[in-house]
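From the pipeline queue, job 12 of 40. The input is one protein chain; the requested action is below.

Action: predict structure.
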Amino acid sequence: MAQIAVERMGLRAIEIGMSPSPNGAGVVGQPTWLWVQDPGERTTGPITRTASAGSVTVTATARLERIVWDMGDGAQVVCTGTGTPYTADRGRSASPDCGHTYTRESGYEPGQRYTVTATSEWVVEWRGAGQTGSLDLDGLARNVQVSVGEAQVLVN
């Protein structure tokens, strides 16, 4: 019954927010900010649904536990919140809660881009019929391609 309640939640992968934008180009050494572009009950929770069969009703509540960001360069970033959207007044500062700094350009990767994947990991607590339990859900993932270049300055 808990699984049916979870199916009714319609959980889905987050839309990736990041700066520099995947449509632009990042630079080695420049902080990359990461955040959830579309926070809501189906992407970040919490969300509660019930399922019934006969006299048994189970209530399940799902909460986003963390987002694991695979940055494509071998690094993983684990964020326990939705991140902070970048705004221009932040300048070149690092994200206060969810970010990464590339140390190598993406030119050596297939397509000359890194694949950034954000995987949502959820915890579902359920109760019903005099019992309680929890389920771990992960695998809700989305990815984008990002280009990272290297800036070099020549001085005469």
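Job complete. Strands lie at 16-19, 25-27, 31-36, 47-53, 56-70, 76-79, 99-101, 114-128, 131-149.
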